[in-house]
Amino acid sequence: MRPTGESLADYLAFDDGTEAGHGIPQQRGHPMMEIDRRAFIESLGGVAAVAAMSSEAKADALEDAQNKALNKAQADKKFPTMAEVDGEIIQKPFRRGVGNLFIGKKGANVTRLEPMPAKPTFIDFFRLRFGDVANHVLQSANHAMQTGMEEEVIFACLLHDTVHALIKVDHGWWGAQLYQPYVSEKVDFAIRYHQALRFYDDAEHGYKYPDLYRRIFGEDYKPEPYIEATYKMVRNHKWYEYPRLVTVNDLYAFQPGVNPKLEQFTDIVGRHFKQPKEGLGYDNSPSAHMWRSMAMPDHPL
Fold first, then answer.
1. pLDDT for 122-158, tens place per residue?
2. Could you tell me the pTM of the whole model?
3. CA pair distance 67, 122, nearest whole angstrom
C-alpha cells in the first residue's frame, strides 16, 4: 500500500534507462511483487516504447503487471498449508487464540476502554466490549431473522462469536460457558457446538465448508479427534439443527456495507436473556469471572 497523500508516480522511483532497467519503475524502499522484467518490457512494445512513456504511464503499467502476477500466484496456490500456517506462529507478538480485548488492532497499541456501568447488562457488554465482532454477529442474526428462523436460532446467532472478546480458541465451548447461566438449553447447545459443525458440509441445510477456514487453518487441515467425535455426537442429536443453522447464517455474515443495528434485536434479548439484577460479573454465577475479565481486562492479576 502506498503512503497516504502520495501519488503512485511519486511512490515509485524510476531508473536511468540503462539496459538493466530500461526505464522500468523501481520501488523506493517498499517490497514489490516479482515480475519478469524482459517479458514486461516486451508486453509494452519494447525498450523504445517504454522510453516514450510518461512516468505515470509506467507506474500504471507496473501496477497492472504486479496485480496480474499476484492474481496468478494466488490462483496457482490459493491457500496455505498447515505447515505454512504453523510457521507463522513465531512471526507474531501474540497468539492467534487470544481474545480481541487483549491485543491491539493490526499491531497497534491497545486503546483505553470505556468503563462499564456498575450493574452491566448484556446490551452494555455488546456496545462496550464486543465491538470487533459486533457487525459479524449482527449480520448473522439479521440473516436468520430475514429468513424467518425461530427466535432461539436468531438469538444464538447474535451471541455465537461474542466470546472472541475474551478468547478465540475453542470459542464454542467458552461461549457456551459464558452464556449458560442466562440462556435456554437450546441456545447453549447451539453456541457450544457450532464450532465443531463448521468443519463439515451439510448440503441439506445449505452449508459448505468455507474458503476462509482453508486460509486460516491450512488447505490440508483435518479437524482434531475431539472435533470429529463432537460432530458425530451432535449430528445424531435431536437439536442438531440449532448449531447447524448458526453455521449456515455465519456464511452470510461477512457482507461489506451491511450494518444491522442492535435495536432490532432488543426485544429478543429481553425475552431470551436472563439478566441478573446484580449485573453481569457480580451475580456469583459459574461464569461471573468471565464477565469481570471482559469488564476489566487491564487488571494485571
1. 999 999 999 989 999 999 999 999 999 999 999 999 9
2. 0.73
3. 45
- The three state secondary structure string of 151-199 is HHHHHHHHHCCHHHHCECCCHHHHHHHHHHHHCCHHHHHHHHHHHHHCC
What letter represents residue 44's amino acid?
Answer: L
The CATH number of 122-295 is which of 1.20.1540.10, 3.10.620.30, 1.10.3210.10, 1.10.3720.10? Answer: 1.10.3210.10
Mean pLDDT of 221-240: 97
Distance CA 183, CA 269 (A): 10
Residue type for position 249: N
Could you tell me if 202 and 186 are in contact, meaning their C-beta atoms sit under 8 angstroms apart? no
Domain ranges of the chain: 8-76, 122-295
Cα gap 73→265, rounded to integer Å: 43
Torsion angle of the four alpha carbons 91, 92, 94, 98, in this order, in degrees rounded to the nearest 10: -90
Query: What cell does 71 get?
Result: 492474481
The answer to which of 19-28, 191-200, 218-227 has the lowest mean pLDDT is: 19-28
Determine whether 234 is exposed, middle or buried from the number of CB atoms within 10 Å of its CB (0-12, 13-18, 19+): buried
pLDDT tens by residue, 252-261: 888 888 899 9
